[in-house]
Batch of 4 targets.
Target 1
Amino acid sequence: MTQQSTEHPTERGASLLDYLKGWPTYLLPHHALSRVMHAITRSEVYWWKSRFTRWFVKQFKVDMSLAQEPDLETYPSFNAFFTRVLRADARPIVDDAKALACPVDGAVSQLGDIKDGRIFQAKGRDYSLLELLGGDVRAAEQFEDGKFATLYLSPRDYHRIHIPIDGKLTAMAHVPGRLVSVSPATARAGPRLFARNERVVAYFDTEVGPMAMVLVGAIFVASIETVWAGEVPPPAGKEIRHWKYESDNSQTDFKKGDEIGRFNMGSTVILLHGANTIDWITDIKAGDHIQMGQALAKQC
């Protein structure tokens, strides 16, 4: 599926306001601020976590009726609230065997085709698939001429990440980088944003071929967690780390809709699929709000 011709807020070119919002974030000490946020959001000081959580719910209009535990006072820290579990019936998983489920709540930043090894970021901006995957040529080759979807999680969204289709985890990479904001304004204004930020790349074998889920860090996202490795904190230095997983390990088998990770504070997930394997649902386009579990793509 090619890009839609109908223009949406995320598809217009960067405005002066976008630059004013986005570029100052490049000047901040991202990792230092994120480490501070990591400590603050895990504080169990009652008066602090209680006031901040109540303010956050009101400020961002968070619907607590969907939470498995709607009582804010039961959460020991702000991060426990932020990564809250939803009710079992809150996000039903599409039951069509040929449909891929949306992995997160959020908004579609962009989705479409990977063309000439490039991924569309915003009007007038794209970035390299190879750079996104940390320079891993063999990994990038699997997704040449394939499909991508970039899904943005705002502060009010549910922040657990689920697998769109049955899959077997085969590898993971941690790519160090910056922690610039990934807001729509910064995506429009910032070059190669998702290929420059810190990210965790999880690779899966599925019935439609290889799939990658790129969990992109951002300002104040002090850590990314996966269910198989726990918290993946950034190491000192710029070395890319790799993990391989044995094929006979049942703990790396996932069914459609299973949780695979979470963001501690909000960010972005980029889905990658190979050529001639899936098609995005035609009714879904850039700028649309989405929910975890709804149909996002169909097998070819």
Target 2
Amino acid sequence: MLNQPLLPPSALIFDMDGLMIDSERLYFAAEREMAAAYGKEIRDEQLWPLMGRKPIESLRLLREILGIETSPEDLFAWRNRLMLEKMRNDLGAMPGLIEILDAFSGRLKLAVATGAQREFLDIALDTLRIRGYFDVLQTADGLERGKPDPEIYLIACRRLGLPPGECVVLEDARNGVLAGKAAGCPVIAIPNDYTRGQDFTTADWVEPDLFAAARRIEKLLE
């Protein structure tokens, strides 16, 4: 729920994975493939804590979950290879993405704040041909701390030149919602098939898809 007076929105900040692009299933497939190489199985709920974090942080967690000796750096390089192949061959926009971008382009500033590294963001933007919509692109590269820490959203707001209270965050996972709220932003949670079981009680609104989120934002602008 809102913990500060609601200001008229001046910007939208989009998470990427599972919010803009249908990539959570690709991450889950890659991580299951990695687990299987060690003769292990992994459940969705075990992978939830990895979502939205800095890539190396997520691989440290995966290493702990699997109970393996492989270094996080080696796991990171391995997952990168798997994900780059999957993203180049099987990447699509989440339903409503182009519509919400068209609806608010030129009316609000638009930004991306993703826990992924820049090369993944570049593939998504160029594959979907949406780079021109965004005023700010913020990735995990160079961050001290990943989501659920608010650092990425505080940096995005600063780069937008706006107070957090005027920047509505759109997130699909609990870690991202926690990060947005800790930064002081209003947050719309939009769970997907891989995150619906997570706790979204800290979000200001929970919407079923980007179409509904767009309607919510229009109400905030009235």
Target 3
Amino acid sequence: MSPETKAKIDNLVQQNKIMVFMKGTKLMPQCGFSNNVVQIMNTLGVPFETVDVLADSEVRQGIKEYSNWPTIPQIYIDGEFIGGSDILIKMYQDETLRETVEVALAS
């Protein structure tokens, strides 16, 4: 990953309380897993930002190296890598996601 791509990802993760690297946009997810994440965040009613990795091949590959996680979407909350769609669904179901998000937004 280039230093420029790493800096770009660093900035996105640090500047946004909830950052989702996904296929498509929050208005038009381009895969089911990305759509799951958008639906969960919308259900929680929390502000979140997204980056469409399909529109930026360097970020698409770079985010996988950045997190050492092979799949998209990837969710960061308060600068911390949370995981992908499967982990977010589990956290939503066991209520830990709401708590994590509330703590992040309050800080």
Target 4
Amino acid sequence: MPREQFQTLSEPMYYILLALRSECSGVDVMNRVKEISGGRVVIGPGTLYALLQKFVDNGIITETKTSGRMRWYIITKTGKTLLDEEFLRLRTMCNDKLRAEGELQ
């Protein structure tokens, strides 16, 4: 797995992978990210398509179909593992903060 390049995920990377737990097009990804984040995270097309290509190139997502200029994608097993690892890393960091503040044993 390409772990070194994706040692940690940026916020846009994380939300794109969350959105791609089910198949969708690039436009759908932008809408799902906005929905999942409650409007807090908005990903523009330049960022989105650059990251989608990087994810495809590294086997993190796969292109499932095309129609004209539209392409659909879905997360791969490798991508799910990467997403799960990032979730655990973030949760550990949150727990460490709570522990440091005496709110978690």
